[in-house]
Amino acid sequence: MVLLLSISFSASAQRSLASIFRSWGFIGDSLCSGEMECFEPGNPTVRYVDLYEYSWGQQMCRLLGSEGWNFSHGGQTARGWLAELDGERGWGYAKTHPKQAYIIALGYNDYYSSLRGVKGFSLEEFRADIRTLISNVKSVAPDARFFVLTRPVETDRELGYDAWNDVIRELPGIFTNLYVIDLFREAPAYDESFKDSNYLNGHMSAQGYLWTAWYLMDAIDGIIRANPEDFRDVALIGTPWQAAP
Q1: What are the pLDDT digits (tens) for 7-21?
Q2: In CA terms, which of 3, 24, 92, 221 is 20 to 30 Å from 139?
Q3: Contact 18/221 with Cβ under 8 angstroms?
Q4: Are 69 and 27 contacting, i.e. CB atoms less than 8 angstroms apart?
């Protein structure tokens, strides 16, 4: 028997310092959107349905007592996010709805587009796109804190995906107030045992997204505790005030 959600976390949801942020923005693709891979009765065609209320971002907000918005949907890429000016899930909406903190989880679909030879989705183009994305968001939320995720270990490790993670690991040397949560190096592998507990077909289940919420709250708590001076003025983000004259 596989033990569900067997990872122990050092910070409970009620004690996580991630709760100092009162507004969150979640920028990503299907795994950021609570997407479920499912079927209609009697129809063998798979359906991909974004159930945002089950996303790790919304589960985080409920546990932390904060509010947040998913600037995300299934199939999204960094380039696609920048070009999405209509609706409520891309840059067009994000630029008029700034948040105190953002979690960015992009790269999966960029990588697979590159493998298929789709024009515009090379590793170097992803590097340029993700930097432009962060620059754009910083232009409307200059004091926000950013937490950017690498992709965890899966079967694609042998295909060289970690080179794409290196694009993420470069970002703290370019942008202020940005931190990497390195799922590839630090999170448990998303192997068969993990997926037996936390996946529904090819995407996470409700408990998998909840596990991710717990993991991210714990990781952010650790970052804040290790760098308290970086977070002293969080309450002033988005206000007319600053910590010093």
Answers
A1: 455 545 558 999 999
A2: 221
A3: yes
A4: no
pLDDT bin (cut points 50, 70, 90) of residue 170 is very high
Q: Is residue 200 part of a domain?
A: yes
Buried residues in 67-87 as b, exposed as e (16+ CB within 10 A): ebbbbbbbebbbbbbbebeee
Its pTM stands at 0.94
Mean local confidence (pLDDT), 219-235: 97
Instruction: Report the domain count for the chain.
Output: 1
Q: What is the CATH number of the domain that holds 50?
A: 3.40.50.1110
Q: Rounded to whole angstroms, how far apart are CA atoms 50 and 31?
A: 9
Residue 4 lies in a domain: no
What is the edge-to-edge ordering of all strands in the sheet holding 67-72?
67-72, 23-28, 101-105, 145-149, 178-181
